[in-house]
Model the fold of this input.
Amino acid sequence: MKDKLELFSSKIPDINHLQSSKLIKYFSYFLLIELEQSYFTAKNILECYETLLIKPYSNIPDYLGKNSKGRNATFGKKTNGYYLHRNAIENIRQKLSIIKEVPVTNNLISMEIFNGTPYYIKKIAEQMNQCYDSGLFDATLVIIRKILETLIIETFEKFKCDNLIKDDNGNFKYLSDLIPVFINSKFWNNSRNLKNNIMQIKKYGDLSAHNRRFLAKKSDLDHLKSDLRQVIEEIVLIIDYPGSKKI
Done:
């Protein structure tokens, strides 16, 4: 707990000049959110002060009791202790400048497709879904472009023919040059669907990345969902990562 609390306390604004009572809500956030406790007690709060060698507030139980009453209460009361109300959590999160993590869903593409792929592929896929769910549609298309480029390069590396997609300086070529070589490769068979769909996906990715007047909409991505799943799943299967999803 000590190391986690030390790190957390470094994010508290002007901690060395705050009134001791003001730290109670921060410590309660730490216990509930960072340590994932279902509730906290006055004793838990006192332990936070003592761990950080900060003089504790004189009457923590009284403070918690008073601030758990009324319409603007900060805390809620449980049988065994206290919890923070939702608006208080959001308020503290903003003051701590903590980025609220967006849950990873399957709303754009199923994460099951990426089972067995390297961690960085999974992370890109997670960000793809998170951007979609957050309404960041241009960002979503740019990330789609990135994952296509990454998977194509890994395909050539898997078949030990990546020299075909490098320039004279040994650098990988741009996506516009990678796709034709990938589609026409003699080392694997691409379906007709992939050949058609990958160019449509690239078109929208290019618009979001390079066209300053194009603003992607949810409908653009919804239209591409089935094509995207087909293309990415086929490439993942061509690479045949150990433990990857099989159709």
Notes: The two ends are 45 Å apart (CA to CA). The mean pLDDT is 93. DSSP finds ten helices and two strands in the chain. The beta strands are 75-77, 82-84.
